[in-house]
Design goal:
By secondary structure, this protein is of the alpha/beta class. Helix content is about 30%, strand content about 20%. The protein is built from nine helices and eleven strands. It is globular, with a radius of gyration of 17 Å. Bound molecules: fructose -6-phosphate (F6R). Fructose -6-phosphate binds next to loops.
Length: about 260
């Protein structure tokens, strides 16, 4: 594929209505994702946008900022809710997800900061924090579009592989594999917080639209399990097969294990 190319994949998995696009480069992937997000906002300016952190959506956020500067999308009436935050963590800490969002998106677009919501990493009572987050989202009619990345182990948000799908916002003890994956952003694995607050699978499944971005070879197994595997809490992203409006936008490396990609 050339760098600007985008190809739609035809999944043989009949259960899944997920739309899949493979992009020839990270830039093309980010532009495609940004055009979907910006298009949805343009159709409904007072939009509830669910956001993810991590390295995967950084290009998408840069592209949204470009579109905003070109006057092609307006965030002045957009409200955002982020998927997750470490717990405990000071929001001013440069490893917090609040810091990440300010740096990579909120400071670069015309959004009202009072409309940006990230779970508070220093909440005295995490149960109250989680319940209020769910209530606020529900009272505003639910998330219109949720941006997702995917963990190497198939997690979405911090919903880690395990026996259950957990519905609402909750506290999570991070797995060793996630601590290890995230330690690249800290001085050492010892500094990675051991817990997080995360939206649940219900919050994500109730979003009217989902856009998942993934790139690189480390995501290939998770993408394979999510799209062509059984629906199982051991790959939390696999539940997206049941969502009526999901788009995966992935690069060739992340797509490399899909039967549908090999058949191209
Ligand atoms: C972050 C989040 C996580 C990440 C996932 C992938 O808010 O919810 O599920 O999306 O860990 O992270 P990256 O993009 O850094 O590979």
């Amino acid at each position: 594929m050339n760098a600007n190319e985008i190809k739609a994949l035809e999944l043989s998995n009949k259960r899944s209505g997920v739309k899949v696009f493979v992009a020839g480069s990270y830039e093309a992937l980010s532009k495609k994702a940004a055009s979907i997000v910006a298009g949805a906002i343009n159709n409904k300016p007072s939009f509830l946008l669910g956001l993810a952190t991590g390295t995967s959506p950084i290009g998408l956020y840069e592209e949204l900022a470009n579109l905003n500067h070109e006057g092609r999308v307006d965030f002045s009436e957009v409200t955002t809710y982020n998927l997750d935050e470490y717990y405990p963590i000071d929001p001013a800490n440069d490893q917090s997800y609040r810091y990440f969002m300010n740096k990579h998106l909120f400071n670069n677009i015309n959004i009202d900061m009072n409309r940006t919501h990230v779970l508070f990493g220093q909440a005295p009572d995490w149960k109250v924090e989680c319940a209020e987050y769910d209530k606020a989202i529900a009272e505003q009619g639910g998330i219109d579009l949720q941006v997702l990345g995917i963990g190497n182990n198939g997690h979405i948000g911090f919903n880690e592989p395990g026996r259950d799908f957990i519905w609402g916002t909750h506290r999570v003890e991070l797995t060793e594999s996630t601590i290890e994956a995230n330690s690249r952003l800290f001085n050492s694995a010892d500094e990675v917080p051991r817990a997080a607050l995360s939206m649940g699978i219900g919050n994500i499944m109730c979003a009217k639209q989902v856009v998942l971005v993934a790139n690189g070879p480390k995501k290939a197994q998770a993408i394979k399990d999510a799209l062509e595997g059984e629906i199982s809490p051991y790959c939390q992203a696999s539940i997206l097969q049941l969502h009526p409006n999901v788009t995966f936008i992935i690069d060739e490396e992340a797509a490399s294990m899909l039967d549908a990609y090999k058949a191209l």
